[in-house]
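User: We ran a pulldown and think these components assemble together. Before we commit to crystallization trials, I'd like a predicted model of the whole complex to look at. Sequences follow.
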Amino acid sequence: MSHATFNRSTDGLPTAVDPAHLAATLAEQRPEDVVDLLNQNKPGFAAAVLLASPDPKAVAVFDQPELRNGSAIASILPADRAARLLNQVSADRLADIFREMRVSDRNHLPALVSSETRSTLERLLRYPDDCAGSIMTTEFVAVPADWTVEQVLAHVREVEHTRETVYAIYVLDADGTLLRALSLRRLIAADPKGDLLAVAPNLTPLAVAPDAPLEEAVRLISKYNLLALPVVDAKQHPIGIITVDDAVDVLVAQQDAQVQHFGGMEPLDTPYLRIGFFELIRKRAGWLSLLFLAEMLTASAMQTYQDELERAIVLSLFIPLIMSSGGNSGSQATSLVIRALAVRDMHLQDWWRVILRELPAGILLGAVLGALGATRIAVWQGLAVFDYGPHWKLIALTVVLALVGIVTFGSIVGSMLPFVLKRLGFDPATASAPFVATLVDVSGIVIYFTAASLVLRGTLL
Amino acid sequence: MSHATFNRSTDGLPTAVDPAHLAATLAEQRPEDVVDLLNQNKPGFAAAVLLASPDPKAVAVFDQPELRNGSAIASILPADRAARLLNQVSADRLADIFREMRVSDRNHLPALVSSETRSTLERLLRYPDDCAGSIMTTEFVAVPADWTVEQVLAHVREVEHTRETVYAIYVLDADGTLLRALSLRRLIAADPKGDLLAVAPNLTPLAVAPDAPLEEAVRLISKYNLLALPVVDAKQHPIGIITVDDAVDVLVAQQDAQVQHFGGMEPLDTPYLRIGFFELIRKRAGWLSLLFLAEMLTASAMQTYQDELERAIVLSLFIPLIMSSGGNSGSQATSLVIRALAVRDMHLQDWWRVILRELPAGILLGAVLGALGATRIAVWQGLAVFDYGPHWKLIALTVVLALVGIVTFGSIVGSMLPFVLKRLGFDPATASAPFVATLVDVSGIVIYFTAASLVLRGTLL
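Assistant: Here's a predicted model for the assembly, 922 residues in total across the polymer chains.
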């Protein structure tokens, strides 16, 4: 339960700790905890600690996706040690380390790893970041269909230490085509002399293509509670697996990205306190400026209604209140639909069902807010807190009508935005609360002044 | 790869399908896919299908957390069949089914399950929804420390079909205290005659208390790539385990809840298209009304500046533009901090570091937007698209100053909101984009008019 914590050095440098001494202390620590410590220090220090650690420990540390600066650390280590360690690191993790490498180092290190590792690496590096192939590993257990249970168990024992998982075993026919998937638990509970195919469930295994979207692989692992999902080529030959712990990492990263997207910015891929200041600005300024430019239309819309504003300045008082309600209801609707599309509770063709719900929902929610707004105006007027003038009842009516219109419009626009983005081939999760608010704001002004001109014509306007 | 799909009946009733016939068709389907189909139908139909299915299939279906109306289906089945099936369902899932049961049915069904199941169930039902105990299961493998590898393997073979997982094996001392955790893969690769303790890694196993927060259990499973995490009582005796597939389910549910929170509403716990209309309204109206009431302060703030507005109506044109920028920058900062706190990249005591970043970030981002805004005013004036009057340069300056002030203020407020919520004991994820925008809007008006009075005193004001 308890795992030792170390002095956190806030400046990123250890406070006079001898790396060799530290390596000895770390011998009994979990690799994940060693990574936590190394991440708080410069690559040079991390390399010194790993240099003083035995191979299995150093490999286990390199194997952690959470290790930062893996490529820098590898570059600092003596070339032969780096090669020996990297040859033992799992293929998917090795590909990650190469991806973060500078091009000059990339040319240098492959010479060090074995030719077999190199060709695997070259294949893995070909897949873009967002597809299943990019997180698969090539170390899985595949056996011919004519083996007995006993033979497979003997094989598992032999290759256990070089495989990412041995809990999922893939049965291939003579061509190397994936025939069945089998769990180790089922295998060890079976009669050792028995036929492999008699033990394996009679189902075509679930699998994905290497260029399938990452989220599809994660969805299958999550839905079918898989410990591993095979990745197959066009001939249905398994070329790798995606393990459940990789799926968990993707889910956590997606959660970050989704909230940051929804917050109206490019997701950071570095922790907030570690990202460079100008990188942080860059990730935020883009969307912020874009939204600002779009929001400039509100100034144009307001200019159109300048005459009305001059005649009835009282109308300007409710502009922020009314506009924000449209943005808020839109933001709610967007968040609902983004998630429903992501978990496949809803599909592209369900858009009209959403409209059929959002239309009455928007009208009702707008009426609720309208009642609150009208009450406020009546109370302020009644208690003489503020004088909205002789036509205050008409102003209240304008506010109610505008709220019903804007909240309904916000709900419809907010709920349709993810559908439109998906239809156009974008990720629906790029829809954000500020994005929706901006879309709704301009029309909010138009709706408000339209309501005003209908209600107040002949009196204030 | 391909798995058969069925006609979706949109009204929730099957289109003249015979349940027994369907059960035969489903025999070769994965339980997850059977659940998808049953979920589209009424409990009575689902019960008829399960009644016609063999026990192992029906149990596998009940074991799926995605099955809706599990308790209703169980209540419709003949009592003896229901009892036989429920006795074989895993303990954590059985507890879920009981949680969703009406009180009258709750009293009825426990009589059917075995006394052993009943006492497990009573223990599990004691834990509230958001703690580790609520998703643990009691079917795990625990063995005495003095067994040999061979003995443990024989035990695993024997109990395999009644355990949620056999891949994590827990080694207990004579008192029943958790001593070591061991993976099955390590066990089968070891010398059968060997000593268990020589094979198990020399580490105190990670574990949680049953009342630990759910998210802590998920964090440990995710960080340490565990297939299962033991839950221990005060004496360190294991009382259950949480498996990685439960952690995955929690992560997916959290993702929904977090996005919906951030969208400014109470998370739905039913899919959007299935939730009742008035339930949907209830989940949205609460926050929407609360935000509306808070946003009413903008009307009060505007009332304060009515004189200024009357003298310089041109100022009103930029109100939506400037206010939305504060909300947008605040929304970005909030989304960053919510996630950093959730994944523990940041802790409560790091708030001042965040301020030290957000202050310069806000000033710089505000200056970027200010430059865009001033350019717009100059271009519109220069091209005579709109006449901002003889003091247009001062108006542009007002806009720049206000944007720097509001974006900085928005960034600070947005980034501090999750800290404040956490400090007050709330979930930082209840901070939402509309919440931040509302907080920032009132102060935005004050900042804007303050900038205006500084710049325009003696000219327009």
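Residues 232 and 239 of chain A are 6 Å apart (CA to CA). That may be worth checking against your pulldown data before setting up trials.

User: Thanks, that helps.
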